[in-house]
């Protein structure tokens, strides 16, 4: 247990620190390498012993593996915008903290409402009837988020974010369910723990990319416009550029997740 926590802890520290220190930092490089080595030792041991703490053999199940990594990518598409959009509203558009919080409320309501019906549709028609249109819609909406500016209307951001959350509701539960259901009963707890661990790693990777993009855009804007713009204007433009770049990164990951989901073999219902 200690080895597992140490390895994942070092990896998470490396990814979270890379946003501020950069990937060339010796601290980041050493932490990441040590984390990978320690996790590798942990995984190797878990595969060899008869009663593993975390049964890594579940990755031999194709459906679970594809579902787990696709869910990992999808998690980035959920947690990322939930933090980016309020930041964009408050710093990029210069609106109040109340409005920056309220911008995600309609999306949360839509997601909660759709989750009630998604399970019924999944039970009747299966994964891909929901996941394919869901991923396509999610990718399109994420691409639209890549072109936000300092002049984008508030209502527009509310609408496209709400549609994103509608798409997420079509995917997240069916994708997790089909992965866990593919495992034997004795391995369900192991599969759940592995999925949760992958999501934590996904969150750290996204935070790293987000911090790096915001830092890079701020530095670039300051260098190019420091004598022409006020500090507030520089911060606004830097935030918008950083948010757009982070959404572009998220779009690429979602496309990968979509491809992984298409590779999942499901039985006809």
Tags for this entry?
membrane, about 270 residues, 9 helices, 2 domains, Growth Hormone, Chain: A, mainly alpha, transmembrane transporter activity, transmembrane helix
Structure in words:
The protein is mainly α. The chain starts with a helix and ends in a 7-residue tail after the last helix. It has two domains: 53 residues; 204 residues, Growth Hormone, Chain: A, CATH 1.20.1250.20. The chain contains nine helices and no strands. It holds the Pfam family MFS_1. It is found in: Cell membrane. This is Major facilitator superfamily permease.
Summarize the structure in short.
This protein is mainly alpha-helical.
Q: Helical amount among residues, as a percent range?
A: over 70%
CATH topology of the largest domain: Growth Hormone, Chain: A
pLDDT < 50 runs, ≥5 residues: none
Q: Which structural class matches the secondary elements?
A: mainly alpha
Assigned CATH class of the largest domain: Mainly Alpha
Tell me the number of helical segments per DSSP (H or I, 4 or more residues long).
9
Q: Indicate the proportion of strand residues.
A: under 5%
What global shape is seen? flat
Which CATH architecture of the largest domain is right?
Answer: Up-down Bundle
- How many structural domains? 2
Q: Let me know the average pLDDT.
A: 82
User: At the fourth CATH level, what is the homologous superfamily of the largest domain?
Assistant: MFS general substrate transporter like domains
Overall strand count: 0
Supply Rg. Answer: 20 Å
Distance between the termini: 41 Å
Helix and strand pattern: HHHHHHHHH
Largest sheet: none
GO molecular function: transmembrane transporter activity
Pfam families: MFS_1 (PF07690)
Subcellular location: Cell membrane
Keywords: Membrane, Transmembrane, Transmembrane helix
């Amino acid at each position: 247990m200690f080895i597992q926590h140490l390895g994942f802890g070092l990896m998470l520290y490396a990814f979270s620190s890379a946003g501020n220190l950069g990937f060339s930092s010796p601290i980041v490089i050493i932490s990441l390498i040590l984390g990978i080595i320690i996790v590798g030792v942990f995984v190797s041991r878990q595969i060899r012993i008869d009663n593993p703490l975390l049964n890594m053999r579940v990755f031999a199940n194709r459906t679970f593996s594809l579902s787990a990594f696709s869910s990992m990518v999808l998690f980035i598409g959920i947690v990322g915008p939930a933090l980016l959009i309020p930041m964009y509203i408050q710093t990029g558009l210069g609106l109040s903290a109340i409005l920056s919080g309220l911008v995600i409320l309609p999306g949360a309501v839509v997601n909660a409402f759709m989750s009630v019906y998604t399970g019924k549709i999944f039970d009747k028609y299966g994964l891909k009837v929901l996941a394919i249109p869901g991923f396509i819609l999610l990718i399109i909406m994420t691409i639209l988020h890549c072109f936000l500016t300092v002049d984008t209307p508030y209502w527009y951001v509310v609408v496209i974010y709400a549609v994103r959350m509608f798409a997420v509701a079509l995917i997240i539960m069916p994708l997790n369910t089909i992965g866990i259901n593919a495992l034997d009963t004795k391995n369900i707890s192991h599969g759940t723990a592995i999925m949760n661990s992958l999501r934590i790693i996904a969150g750290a990777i996204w935070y790293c990319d987000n911090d790096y993009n915001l830092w890079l855009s701020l530095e670039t804007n300051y260098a190019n416009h420091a004598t022409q713009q006020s500090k507030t204007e520089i911060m606004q433009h830097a935030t918008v550029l950083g948010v757009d770049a982070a959404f572009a990164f998220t779009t690429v990951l979602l496309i990968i997740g979509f491809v992984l989901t298409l590779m999942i073999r499901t039985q006809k219902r």
